[in-house]
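yo

u said u wanted the structure for the complex thing, so here. seqs first:
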Amino acid sequence: MAEYNNKPDNEGTVKKANFIHTQITEDLKAGKNEKRVHTRFPPEPNGYLHIGHAKSICLNFGIAEKFGGKTNLRFDDTNPSKEETEYVESIKEDVRWLGFDWEDRLYFASDYFEKLHDFAIKLIKDGKAYVDDQDAETISNQKGTPTRPGFESPCRTRSVEENLDLFARMTNGEFDEGSCVLRAKIDMASPNMHMRDPIIYRIMKAHHHRTGDKWCVYPMYDFAHGQSDYWEGITHSICTLEFEVHRPLYDWFIDQLQETDYRPRQIEFARLNLNYTVMSKRKLLELVKDKHVNGWDDPRMPTISGLRRRGYTPESIRNFSDRIGVTKVDGVIDVTLLEHSVKEHLNRTAQRVMGVINPLKVVITNYPENQSEELDAVNNPEDASMGSRKVPFSKELYIERDDFMEDPPRKFFRLGPGREVRLRYAYFVTCNDVIKDANGNITELHCTYDPASKGGNSPDGRKVKATLHWVSAKHAIKSEVRMYDRLFRDENPDGHKDRDFKEFLNPDSLKLLNDCYLEPFVQGAKTLDHFQFERLGYFNVDPDSTDEKPVFNRTVQLRDSWAKQQNKKQ
RNA sequence: UGACCUGUGGUGUAACUGGCAACACGUCUGACUCUGGAUCAGAAGAGUGCAGGUUCGAGCCCUGCCAGGUCAACCA
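structre next:
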């Protein structure tokens, strides 16, 4: 089991105790629930999981890990009109990929439809539930408003027998959708809207992804969730802040159920907000449906599948979750913190490779025509155990266009006419000629190399100010590279009144580069393999890759002090 | 005009039953370097929403304000 409590874990980070941990510790101290800790992650299968869910997953499974308890995966599938099997599968995959295991405890709220139905009948018999056949608008009006109490429905006094009969007929499908509902009889004058005789069953003649056409009535969230917790023996039911006002109702149902000392407890925390993106499933679905992105796993999406495809690692997402903490304050996390988390992980683990994304041809004029040689290159300077590899060198090379300036400013350390730089792991080269086409565009550079500097150092101790990455033209693997930027230009795209969040989509969030050259080492890399393209950033293999055309996604760029200086000037 | 919740450096979190506000990211210096990466060293930056009160002493306790959020789906 991992050690928490402010001790560094094996990834070198510190996992802090949060307020939920504190409360659980107190419950344990008080001897509640026979000192068991059992949590659950309860997604509704109506969309793909996103980074906000990852926070919840890490929290719930993390608690089980910390307290020696268990975590169930439970699908909250009480609304057949929105839920699909596709989502169930993607969610399972994402939770597993994040590194968590629900073992044999995979449940569905729909597992409890029978029990829930029985429980509803019990409430009717106890005089605590009734069928209301007024229309939705009438019921809604009777509910009052947050500042004004509601008043009682005329159906509230129906006899137990009549309620039983009506509910049975609802269940049998004798009534149309919307014609009546089952309500709990609580308190229409409660200051808490959720206690004003909440609807607990509605008629829906929809096909359910698991129970098929068996049911014509489906329980509402409030009537299913706490009960599911109870039947599964959950001790701590952790959910987001908006359910805070539901807690009295959660407790009310548990009161009706409770037979022993065992009792689940709902605790709320603030959901994750990230800037420059949207997090609601509805909006993410809209982006997918309207093709603003290429599916739920588009690398620009904040979905777990999107982040995975983008090149994020489970470790980095778990670390991110630990770093942001858990509180009841709802704030906004800077995406750069997420980015920092991957960079930190990938820096330690990613294979280094050279790749030129915006090629500029370089001819080494004093290098023999048909010669080539292999030079040693370190695979990861952070991890000697990753060893080294050979990189081919020859007369014609590509370097990055940005690494050359015809009229360089003083602070620009890279290549310019007459300047000498180092080609990483290779030689010192000096630029002698700049070749241009008829329009004045630079088409290639003529350089000479210093044979004595083989490997990257000159025996005379000469220093150069820059080291460039490069690729041998005839050995290079041509590939496509997809450069991603934030999906939205605005920090808080859905925070504008009267303006649709889609107005803030970043038109430059995806740039396809088709003329990229990578060193042969990447040949045969598998989907999702990570690399650092030296000096550029971290990249991974996209599933769209083929043998003929490898495709790489840029996960994040490396810190770029030069670019930063330039930005400051503007 | 209700109920519930929240309010600590730019951002996110911390501060055991009250004891001179800590950490991370970011920012800025400098060192080192065959990645202008990474790393290392250092600096700036809040006096804890506001006003009172209790106390030798309050971010932590009390009172009153202010600000923000949530709640009126037969969604979850």
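The longest helix of chain A spans residues 51-67. The CA atoms of residues 524 and 547 of chain A lie 8 Å apart.
cya
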